[in-house]
TrEMBL record:
Function: Channel that opens in response to stretch forces in the membrane lipid bilayer. May participate in the regulation of osmotic pressure changes within the cell.
Quaternary data: Homopentamer.
InterPro entries (alphabetical): Mechanosensitive_channel_CS (IPR019823), MS_channel (IPR001185), MSC/AndL (IPR037673), MscL_channel (IPR036019)
Domain of life assignment: Bacteria
Residues annotated as transmembrane: 21-47, 67-92
Annotated membrane topology: Multi-pass membrane protein
Family statement: Belongs to the MscL family.
Residues spanning the signal sequence: none
Subcellular location: Cell membrane
Protein name (database record): Large-conductance mechanosensitive channel
Lineage, opening ranks: Bacteria, Bacillati, Actinomycetota, Actinomycetes, Micrococcales
Main localization (coarse): membrane
């Protein structure tokens, strides 16, 4: 059990995922402050709210109280998510994809979109069929 855990944790993709989570959290904090400090007030000014977080919808409840729906906070969270996704894509994903394309072109690896990637089972079936044909 310990050996399996050691293999799992030392795999490259697990370490990459951990690094991505840490960097994502850091970028999320930075982008969150930019959205809260600049974009949200800007949208609030455009809609004459002063601040997007002040955009609420108050609905009377059946018991005579009030339920407050914080529409501005929800919209702010959506804007925050889209801003983080946009920044991560253009700062990390797009440049890395371009880098990989350039490295593949330098190495002479052809881009093959025509051939589907075979699963292990499909590949083994093809090998079995070729061996049967060869033996007969």
């Amino acid at each position: 059990m310990i050996k399996g855990f050691k293999e799992f944790i030392t795999r490259g993709n697990v370490i990459d995922l951990a690094v991505a989570v840490v960097i994502g959290a850091a970028f999320s904090a930075i982008i969150g402050k930019i959205v809260d400090g600049f974009i949200t007030p800007l949208i609030g000014v455009l809609f004459q709210l002063g601040d997007l977080n002040k955009w609420v919808w108050v609905v009377p409840t059946l018991s005579g109280g009030k339920a407050t729906f914080m529409l501005g906070a929800i919209i702010g969270a959506i804007i925050n998510f889209l801003a983080v996704a946009l920044i991560v894509y253009f700062v990390f994903v797009y440049p890395m994809n371009r880098f990989k394309e350039r490295q593949a072109a330098k190495a002479g690896v052809p881009e093959s979109d025509d051939e589907p990637v075979l699963t292990e089972q499909q590949l083994l079936t093809q090998i079995r069929d070729l061996l049967e044909k060869q033996n007969s």
